[in-house]
């Protein structure tokens, strides 16, 4: 494996596969290959990246492109470590397509784990027969956004959690922040650790209930105000993640 620090940011597109075999060539098939050949019109000699979504990444050049897939000659192979701190978004289920939108934006802005939260005031409810469909949409959005952002790691989208389960998760973090427009403490005044797990909780369109705030505080979370503006549930989380990334990861 080569040094992850030598990764070149040359604009090469990223393709995601379920598994990266060892060896000097990688064959990209299925939807990824069709996108490369039919949409991007990739030809031999072009630089590409291929990742397994779990941190293993190869850089290479296209050796052949056709109906059988995209054959990539491997030039370098990397194990890309997980970034620090781990960023977790606890996202209350929004209405309609705002759930996948929140996942898409959060992925582009560095989230590592997304937890769908069945808050008391959620308009949307994933009944038992709709959980798999809802998760499939969120996970597809995370995968597509990872390609767009050229991230070698796809964020995990967990199963939906109740408020009680979220409290258990928050109790295991190094910093947990609950966004609330009526909070007195500003988000900018919080000390953010450079390692460990940092979680952000975003409520639904109807807001977080007083009982939920009490429960989250009892679990060790801090209630903070992101800014003077009241953001939509689908944009509040990504905005907080961008602020966290600027303070801990971006340089």
From TrEMBL:
Keywords for this protein: Cytoplasm, Methyltransferase, rRNA processing, S-adenosyl-L-methionine, Transferase
Job description of the protein: Specifically methylates the N3 position of the uracil ring of uridine 1498 (m3U1498) in 16S rRNA. Acts on the fully assembled 30S ribosomal subunit.
Domain Ribosomal RNA small subunit methyltransferase E methyltransferase: 84-244
Protein name (database record): Ribosomal RNA small subunit methyltransferase E
Gene Ontology terms: biological process: rRNA base methylation
GO MF, one example: rRNA (uridine-N3-)-methyltransferase activity
Catalytic activity annotation: uridine(1498) in 16S rRNA + S-adenosyl-L-methionine = N(3)-methyluridine(1498) in 16S rRNA + S-adenosyl-L-homocysteine + H(+)
Family annotation (InterPro entries): Alpha/beta_knot_MTases, PUA-like_sf, RsmE, RsmE_MTase_dom, RsmE_PUA-like, tRNA_m1G_MTases_N
EC number assigned by the record: 2.1.1.193
Enzyme class name: transferase
Family the UniProt entry places it in: Belongs to the RNA methyltransferase RsmE family.
Record-linked SUPFAM superfamilies: alpha/beta knot, PUA domain-like
Organism domain of life: Bacteria
The keyword Mitochondrion is assigned to this record: no
One CC-aspect GO term: cytoplasm
Subcellular location(s) of the protein: Cytoplasm
Keyword Ubl conjugation annotated: no
Residue span(s) of domain Ribosomal RNA small subunit methyltransferase E PUA-like: 28-75
């Amino acid at each position: 494996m080569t040094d992850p620090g030598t990764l070149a940011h040359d604009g090469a597109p990223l393709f995601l596969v379920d598994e990266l075999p060892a060896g000097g060539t990688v064959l990209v098939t299925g939807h990824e290959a069709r996108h490369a050949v039919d949409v991007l019109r990739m030809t031999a000699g072009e630089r590409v990246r291929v990742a397994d979504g779990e941190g293993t990444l190869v850089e290479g050049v296209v050796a052949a492109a056709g109906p059988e897939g995209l054959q990539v000659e491997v030039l370098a192979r990397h194990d890309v470590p997980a970034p620090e701190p781990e960023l977790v978004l606890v996202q209350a289920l929004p209405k309609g397509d705002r759930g996948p939108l929140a996942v898409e934006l959060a992925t582009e802005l560095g989230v590592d784990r997304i937890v769908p939260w069945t808050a008391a005031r959620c308009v949307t409810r994933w009944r038992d027969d709709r959980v798999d469909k809802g998760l499939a949409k969120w996970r597809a959005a995370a995968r597509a956004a990872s390609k767009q952002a050229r991230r070698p790691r796809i964020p995990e989208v967990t199963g939906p959690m109740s408020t009680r389960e979220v409290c258990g998760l928050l109790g295991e973090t190094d910093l947990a922040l609950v966004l609330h427009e009526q909070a007195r403490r500003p988000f900018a005044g919080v000390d953010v650790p450079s390692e460990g797990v940092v979680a952000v909780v975003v409520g639904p369109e109807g807001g977080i209930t007083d009982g939920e705030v009490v429960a989250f505080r009892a679990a060790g979370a801090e209630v903070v105000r992101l800014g003077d503006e009241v953001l939509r549930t689908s944009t509040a989380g990504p905005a907080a993640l961008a602020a966290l990334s600027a303070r801990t990861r971006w340089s």
